[in-house]
Prior knowledge:
homodimer; transmembrane helix (chains A, B); Cat_transpt (chains A, B); cell membrane (chains A, B)
Amino acid sequence: MKLFLKKLTPARIxxxxxxxxxxxxxxxxxxxxxxxxxxxxxxxxSVFTAVSAVSVTGLTVVNIxxxxxxxxxxxxxxxxxxxxxxxxxxxxxFWLLLGKKIGLKERQLIMVDQxxxxxxxxxxxxxxxxxxxxxxxxxGTLILGVYFLKFYPDWKDAFLHGxxxxxxxxxxxxxxxxxxxxxxxxxxxxxxxxxxxxxxLGAIGFPVLIELKQFLMHRDNSRIFRFSLFxxxxxxxFLALLVFGTIVILLLEWNHAFRGASWHESxxxxxxxxxxxxxSGLATIDVSTFSQATLIVMSGLMFIGAxxxxxxxxxxxxxxxxxxxxxxxxxxxxxxxxVFRRELHxxxxxxxxxxxxxxxxxxxxxxxxxxxxxxxxxxxxxxxICSAFGTTGxxxxxxxxxxxxxxxxxxxxxxxxxxxxxxxxxxxxxxxEKTKFHYPKERVIIG
Amino acid sequence: MKLFLKKLTPARIxxxxxxxxxxxxxxxxxxxxxxxxxxxxxxxxSVFTAVSAVSVTGLTVVNIxxxxxxxxxxxxxxxxxxxxxxxxxxxxxFWLLLGKKIGLKERQLIMVDQxxxxxxxxxxxxxxxxxxxxxxxxxGTLILGVYFLKFYPDWKDAFLHGxxxxxxxxxxxxxxxxxxxxxxxxxxxxxxxxxxxxxxLGAIGFPVLIELKQFLMHRDNSRIFRFSLFxxxxxxxFLALLVFGTIVILLLEWNHAFRGASWHESxxxxxxxxxxxxxSGLATIDVSTFSQATLIVMSGLMFIGAxxxxxxxxxxxxxxxxxxxxxxxxxxxxxxxxVFRRELHxxxxxxxxxxxxxxxxxxxxxxxxxxxxxxxxxxxxxxxICSAFGTTGxxxxxxxxxxxxxxxxxxxxxxxxxxxxxxxxxxxxxxxEKTKFHYPKERVIIG
Lengths: 447, 447
Ligand SMILES: [K+]
Ligand SMILES: [K+]
């Protein structure tokens, strides 16, 4: 028993939790009542839907609204919560738990928890995570539900759509029951803005949310609140990616997919499709109409993915930021990376570089393997692979046509993208060495 | 004058030499006599041919045998020598010159030069490089010239073909005067083997050649000769890539492009096409008949390219090896990378990682940019870009169809690939810090 507990490393617990969630989800999705009358779904497609829902990716081999009953839709909502919120909560929990080992001083710099770092404090924190997310989802449901009364006179229909939309956005699941994502709301900027806010709250990472909460609560306190390096880094990267994506999509599609659209339509198309690459996968336009250049850029954005300890996937925004900082400081001949008056820990840089390279190898090997098993173009496969690894769920439309082997590869990518290469590497990273005197070092989460 | 000399950093000298070589080449290629009677070549195509020849890439927008006269062919041979051998000689020279600054002890570990490290010693070394390469080219010309008497009864024709083939292979220029690369020799394993040997001698890097020479000359000496870490690392990587490429191409094309070919034909197709990705660009089969998976793998091999201080391009074999070693040691939790009873210097690892990432960014941006300016598929563009950056010169056939802007992008990639991102980064890398006691550290060339 003691040996069993010793073998329960955080990575194993998260993987185990994920596996359990997939198994339960598959079993639930095999209940006949989840389907609409007369609809049959093959076993592999049920497994694919389960993996896609648990990893909150949103790639689908079936049309949800034509396949699943209202009961089935509630089952899906439950699965998003298990996958999105569950993995995020566990991930944050273990990050804090591991943080204890780093030493009191550094842990305090992480600034997430001001309390005594004991187990009951951590359990309270997990409860906090759940409360905050459920509150966000509830607010989203209310706002969207009331708004949807405009389209669905029956309040039950309106609130079912509101609930599904809110949870699908907040957990970044990206599933839809409209049959065509958010395309029906292409001109409804209110729905889009609410969605972008919910997506961002889910994808920006829980540590940021809790620091934000603390900041708001301590606002009138005389002591100056300091956001952690991690919160600053991840938020700025998140914003920078959003802006970069919006500008690039706008420029590249201005005379292409957006031809004939007004400037504000074009802007919202670009903004929403940029925001969605973080990890949501909802779309207000058929992305397969985009040009090759745009689709390559979006693949890159999906590969980067969302922030650590969030509902998203990919290599994570912090990992990307550390890569860029590394290159910038290397080009300037600086060995030590300083940012926001803090010095990054060398081990974090090493991890970020390794994670990025491994993710690149993973996706490249997938490209070669899928090129053998499928007949689709390199562009369509690249987009699908990055979408799966980033748990984004956008697709050029090839998902239902994948071979069973191809579906398995995509499922594996969704799994690794969701769990995160970093969380595995975090366990096996280098040993601590004697530190020299520098700027105060500060750890950031690689994933 | 003193200020001028001070600004003459090695990187600037190499870039300056390259620019000068291109200018001279363009001027020479504008002499009317270089063309066959009645043939006109546009200015941009002359520039493209010049850049392709100076960077020994071999991508062509014109058919050489139908465009250039015998005089023009000799001009091209001269340009390969300027580009292939010239840059290689200068590169090695500066590597040794910079080696002096590393300190006597470490410089001795590099083992390339046992003499007093003074400038005249270095000039002698440059002469040595030239002698060895010219000897290799002469031997290649004699062997191929005599052999070609079989096909060309006139000895002048036979030796012109022998000379061009030998120099095009040794400098890894990859140009051909057959009009269809080495496809006419698809069943002539002797010509292929000679070509593979010449390609390898040019691409394995000059430091390896000179160590090999010293090894052969000191064989009967009682003192045990020790190959440098660099020589071991680069040779083993070179061999490993050759074997890996051969196996993968053979497996992927066995039932595809090689269908109907005998096992030994298939094996030689795979072997030659694997060897050619190091940097030669000669081919014994039309690579556009290969499957998507094979072409992705070949793109990766071309991106890696040849060894440092050689006639090739790409990120270089050592850079690739250091990346792999980094990942392997990282996965095992080792911070210090030990290989062949030596420890790699941390700065070299940092450089290798930065070079790889920058090269990846460079090629990705090129992909997006060419996706905007050209109408070709992602696969064709990826292959072309990796071929240009690796100065390989293989193509799916899109080179002549590129827009003028597209040609400029490819020219820039050939230039950077040939000069090497590493040689720029070598100048701007991190400052030296106090060393602690470890295994004896040993420098390797990143590029
Ligand atoms: K998603
Ligand atoms: K070449």
